Amino acid sequence: MSERLTDPGYRRLSPVDLAAAAAGLALRGATADIVAAVRQFEISTPWSAAPLGRADNFPRAVAARLGQDPKRAILEVTGGQAPQRLVTEAAGEIAAGRADTALIVGAEAISTVAHWARAEGRPDFTEHAGGQIEDRGYGLDGLAPPALAAHGLLDPPGQYALFEHARRARLGLSHGDYRAAMGALFAPFTRVAAGHPHAAAPTIRTAEELITETPSNRMVADPYPRYLVSRDKVNQGAAVLLASVETARRLRVPPDRWVYLHGHADLRERDVLDRPDLSAYPAAVAAVRHALDLAGLDLGDLATIDLYSCFPIAVFAVCDGLGLPVTDPRGLTVTGGLPFFGGPGNDYALHAIVETVRRARRAPGTFGLVGANGGFLSKYSVGVYSTVPAPWRANGSATIQAGLDAVPAGPRPGPPGVETYTRKPGQDAVVVARGPDGRRFVTSTPEEGDLLMARFRDLPRPPAA
Ligand SMILES: CC(=O)SCCNC(=O)CCNC(=O)[C@H](O)C(C)(C)COP(=O)(O)OP(=O)(O)OC[C@H]1O[C@@H](n2cnc3c(N)ncnc32)[C@H](O)[C@@H]1OP(=O)(O)O
């Protein structure tokens, strides 16, 4: 479900409206034992605000619209991994016989809220549903490093920009060549978005257009102009219904609509400043590998792939680790990705799952993979979907996580110098550097990008702390 401000018949739908509309289509009269919801951005941090008001119990508010009173209502922690994590958890609950059906829902109306926040005659989205809720909290532990906070760099564009320049340094690319690579990665995404009925920005753009600064493609955080950044001004909702085979049969869901979860994994990366390599995402790579192993597949067996794409590095880092060419002819998105389809808060991957399921139904017997990223390349959840029947198999994420956590924290040993940096317009650059003692530190400098670049190549000493 989606609506744009410019749509004829625009209705100012709230997140509950959007989620309920999507959930109604998924349920088609079925009853959900569990309703598990993805958290809206407006309740994702202690400092978030909901200027139009909000539901006090989002999953139950959605259920109530559909005349349902589920046994369990869940509100998941913050993060873009949430949709896939919830699908995997719910599938396990059903396999264990603790539920017959589970509905996963999510929606954002960030565009509508931003538009009406200070306008006359604004709608009131306050809603009292009450009742039981398993609110899992923000789940933000480790996501706000004080050293970055001290330099005002807690926002996603700023932190992802650091990862991007770290990758540029690793590859030894000039600013221009790296920008060109980001444009080349995302230009095909714009073509997919242009063909998706729910895309927020369905405009085909060339690589050159994506990276050329213009008034509408203004610099957000070097190296990102706006077109390379997740687009949060969207109104989008999605829902996924899970059921056991017996229940699907009882509900008379036609068997050609049954799609099974073949592989899955949920892994977590170290806190940002403890990572050996700021350009890499080993937890995501391990999650994709493990989900494929569980499904008994190789990358080459997949018909569709959707890698979370809030910023280019989220795709690059997974492709780098897997050895998957970014030019893979299957494409790396089924929706158009977060800057073009839209980045509805924590909810994007639910849309990717819906589209993957649709494509699996259209091509029975094929397999599709969804990779869902949360935080600052912090949490990755993967699902592999197909119409081919598969038994439930628990994953081995805990064992793999222990292996990832055993890698020593902190930067790889190396000479002192700049590891990465970013700069927001009109501000000093924020620099992450390795000191003479091998420790990582964060500092700010008014120096220009070219001078910082020189530090990548010739690193006489770190900038003054
Ligand atoms: C794990 C993760 O997912 S991390 C990612 C988390 N997500 C984020 O951090 C979101 C990052 N993105 C953003 O913060 C914002 O998109 C920004 C800052 C990059 C740009 O936002 P803005 O400054 O509002 O951009 P701008 O005003 O240019 O508007 C962008 C587009 O939205 C439209 N728009 C702006 N305001 C509104 C509004 N209230 N309602 C509807 N559309 C709007 C504009 O018309 C423009 O559309 P166009 O592309 O067709 O020209």
UniProtKB/TrEMBL annotation:
<keyword id="KW-0012">Acyltransferase</keyword>
<protein>
    <submittedName>
        <fullName>Acetyl-CoA C-acetyltransferase</fullName>
        <ecNumber>2.3.1.9</ecNumber>
    </submittedName>
</protein>
<dbReference type="GO" id="GO:0003985">
    <property type="term" value="F:acetyl-CoA C-acetyltransferase activity"/>
</dbReference>
<keyword id="KW-0808">Transferase</keyword>
<comment type="similarity">
    <text>Belongs to the thiolase-like superfamily. Thiolase family.</text>
</comment>
<dbReference type="InterPro" id="IPR016039">
    <property type="entry name" value="Thiolase-like"/>
</dbReference>
